Amino acid sequence: MSVEATLLVKTFASGSDVAAVGGVSFTAPEGKITSLLGPSGSGKSTLLRLIAGLEEPDSGSIRIAGNDVTSVPVKRREVGFVFQSYALFRHMTVRENIAFGMEIRNAPKAAIAERVKELLSLIQLSGYEERFPAQLSGGQRQRVALARALATEPKVLLLDEPFGALDAQVRVELREWLGRFHERTRVTTLLVTHDQEEALELSQHVVLLNGGLVAQAGAPHELYDHPASPFVASFLGGANVTRSRAQDGREVSTFVRPHDVRLAKPLASSSDLELGTVDRLARIGGNVKLTVSLPSGDAMSVQVSKLELDKLGISIGDRVVVDVTSSKVFVDDYAI
Amino acid sequence: MSGGVATRWNGSGKRQSRVAAEADWVRASLIGITVLFLGVAVVLPLSVVFSSAFSKGFEAFWAALSEPDAVSAIGLTLLTAAIAVPLNAVFGIAAAWLVSRYDFWGKSALVTLIDLPFSVSPVISGLVFVLLFGAQGFWGRWLSAHDIKIIFAVPGIVIATTFVTFPLVAREVLAVMQAQGNDEEEAALTLGAGGFRILTRITLPKIRWGVIYGVILCNARAMGEFGAVSVVSGHIRGQTNTMPLHVEILYNEYNFVGAFSVAALLASLALVTLVVKKSIELGVALRARRLSRKAERDGRASLAPPSLKMRSLA
After folding, report:
1. CATH tag, B57-291
2. Of A42, A83, A209, B159, which residue has the fewest beta carbons closer than 10 angstroms?
3. Is ipTM strictly over 0.85?
4. Rounded Cα gap, residues B146 and B157, in angstroms
5. What pLDDT, in 10s, does the model give residues B91-121?
């Protein structure tokens, strides 16, 4: 059940006339996790709410599993939504929370009990039926919210910054768990996040948004390896940017990723113009981050493996040959 | 130079102790003023009310409460509260819902209007209804032609009381609704619930403490309202006298035991209301503390399977 958005526009009346979502089209493939990635204010959450039906678009259309649902009200759109705040019903137990959607649909009691049991074991919270949300930790609440959204077997699962309110360790644990969880359920999932690592790791398709427009959409490695604009290049994976002017006055930006740089010991024939100096060196687990100042005065971040560094035997203050293995050049925002 | 250092030490040491002394002195006098004020303004009058009521013994107290006019006043007060409080509960929830859930033109004007009955003197509120419904009033001719009596009758008293006590439920519920936000309602919506089910199964349970609190305050005020009711009632004994009005009449007739007996009953109703409110607050606080403590205990190993944890607890 794919999700297809066509030229969605949403402007909020109050304040400026700038559209929160300014003509966005994309397709979320069936059975996959699609990330709506972007910095804050890029319109990603608004886009998710438009798809859920919690907001009404000014124009454009939304199709779920091929059917136009643009004017279908939320309650009949059959989407599961997990809110950033989880929005668990605080006066209901875990069991009542998960059962709510099925009770609304007048499902038989036995079927509800069966499904609640099944979902609780899926989210590894069997035995927590009679707890209230206030008695759960953040990660547990998050999983209950997920179970509640899935209980009615929605066509699409929509997650709004699902790990936003968790601390770093739980966030990484849950991210891996969600990946395995999705492999079992195979529900078409749309995930809103501002965390590029989350998007690159979890999803098979990424829609990168900027200022209410799609900057680039595609497989994670496509965006990473072939960024379509300077924004995509700098947003994904961090890069060294050098700006200069071409002879005809156009602006040229060169992007070099920290791991696309080779370092070597200088040869006797090396001239000073080719050499940089190691200013800083930080070992982070198996990787080493270096800052090398170049003859031009620019500082360049370089990432090498610990193994490689030990082989080279470089330390702070050493002169090194800097060799860029791959870079991306943009002239006036166009890739060449 | 060493002298300078010494002075600095001395100075700072002195200053510190003086600061502490001042804090003690300030705290003591603040406590003193508060206790004195509460004693003079609240405890003393209340004890005078009760001691005067029982000054001629329990017999006289009971006689004052059981004479027909007093019984009628008590009955009318309870009737007025029984109508005004439910009406304001419904109006209040509806108004709070409207203000917290929707954006519309003139919203801030509406919020100000909700507070209006509080900011206008109750006497003026009463007068407004006389001008509207009285014999010479705006609708007076039409009402008398249809033989409907509002002013100097029970309906007027109920309307005036409802008006004066309107903000109490609305204010309480609005504060609770704005604090809790709209997320749970939206979640229910995505789960397929319609408006009515969201109201009965999500919103009302969520705001129930706000409603109860508002209703208690509203009830206390409805039973005790004097100014607005005094203007519209006409003081007809046995017919349009509420308890506060009855107290005034008895007092003006130098029937002090009678006046203080009814006043004592009215004060007791208010005290009971406050006790109920306080015990509800205490219950909520205790429950919240118990929940958070339990959550803290349980929250540790968030991803550990429950079976493991139960074993470790046992």
Report:
1. 1.10.3720.10
2. A83
3. no
4. 20
5. 999 999 888 888 788 888 988 888 888 888 9
